[in-house]
Write a structure and sequence with these properties.
The complex is a heterodimer of chains A (about 240) and B (about 240).
Chain A: E1 2-11, E2 14-24, E3 29-33, H1 40-47, E4 55-60, E5 63-64, H2 72-76, E6 79-82, H3 94-104, H4 110-123, H5 139-151, E7 157-161, H6 169-184, E8 189-192, H7 196-202, E9 205-210, E10 213-219, H8 220-225, H9 230-240
Helix pairs in contact in A: 3-4, 3-5, 4-5, 5-6
Chain B: H1 21-55, H2 59-74, H3 77-91, H4 94-102, H5 105-135, H6 138-146, H7 151-166, H8 168-181, H9 193-204, H10 207-235
Helix pairs in contact in B: 1-2, 1-5, 1-9, 2-5, 3-4, 3-5, 5-7, 5-8, 6-7, 8-10, 9-10
Amino acid sequence: MITIDKVSKHYGNFQVLTDCSTHVNKGEVVVVCGPSGSGKSTLIKCVNGLEPFQQGDIHVNGTSVGAPKTNLSKLRAHVGMVFQHFELFPHMTIRDNLSLAQIKVLKRDKDEAAEKGLYFLDRVGLKAHAHKFPGQLSGGQQQRVAIARALAMDPICMLFDEPTSALDPEMINEVLDVMTELAQEGMTMMCVTHEMGFAKRVAHRVIFMDHGKIVEDDSKEAFFANPRSERAQQFLAKILQH
Amino acid sequence: MEYQWNWGVFLLPSAVNDGTYLDWMIAGLQTTLLLSLSAWVIALLLGAVVGVLRTVPHRGLSGVATAYVEMFRNIPLLVQLFFWYFVLPELLPAAAGDAFKALNPIAQQFVAAMVCLGFFTSARVAEQVRSGINALPRGQKNAGLALGLTLPQTYRHVMLPMAFRLVVPPLTSEFLNVFKNSAVCSTIGLLELAAQGRQLVDYTAQPYESFVAVTVAYLMINVVVMLLMRKVEVLVRVPGYLGGK
């Protein structure tokens, strides 16, 4: 589904990603973790071309992200993305947030888009809030809306960029529950997250990054039981103390 | 010598018998309003376009927009006015220059003043619009793009609606400035409010009354603008965001 092949990226002299290669199979849930500044967010943004990269290539469902002739808008329309800061559109109601891209990108008519939006809103348990504006919802609710907004586009895979990092601790679980459900339904997912509990429960594979490199790329059992690199061992030791 | 106050001066017939002096002031007020409002329309339209262009990821376009802004906001308004009124008609292709000169003198002054004020203010509006766009969280643009919207669609539906809301207060200042700057246009002979005030002094030797009237008229205009813009602010308020409920 997603193939990342020897991707490197730099801003001027600063190397952000070095020779990153991995893949996500259909129906697989891959968690990407690592210390801040390790390049995990950058890597996931490369997958749908929000961040350009200088070397290597990424293919999503056979389409090259790096090729200049690729219609990135078309590719992104089917790759759902959820951001750390939700990024709902504050001037639109929840209903309109869910409909906008369905109407403008997928050319669905208004009623169909609204119906589809409400269906996914219901699935994340927020149907009653359709008429509200994002600013009137809690962070956890906003993030669930953001997930519903991505799902309404019928994505072939979902990218999560630290979806719970900006949330109060009590709201993290409501978002993780939605993600877990999604994974159980067989959605292909790539998740940048520090939620190791989620990784243990849901992930098939774990990728560990450090200084722009993929240091570990293993099944979750192997990763948690016995990380090969010293850096990953340190990371896990620190993070799992709590 | 004691100053002789005479507020009745406004009701006297003018020296050239074209109504009262009050009629002069009203004519000046109308010219100021018409000039400033039409310049404001130009400024808003051009400023919005230039401001957006300054933020697009295309070097040529943003370069042109930057040059535009720097030119129009770094040359004194008075110099720009003289350029539009005295110089440009000579530089235009003969047909266009002649067409301009064939207008009656008042129309020539008005057009030059309107275009001048409009362009001058558009550079300032453009900067406000740009700052509004840059003030948005970076993720908003990414969120629009990630949903498959094109960059123009993302500007149109995601970024600009919020950016314009953010810049309503600074745009209010620019709107007020247009009316105040319009007084400069009296220097090319356009009989707007300030010029009528000065003319009234020449004819009646009642400077205090005249300038008090002009001052009050400008204040009134700007009170109305402020109230209007406050209404706009309330109208575009987003629930749960930036002072909205």
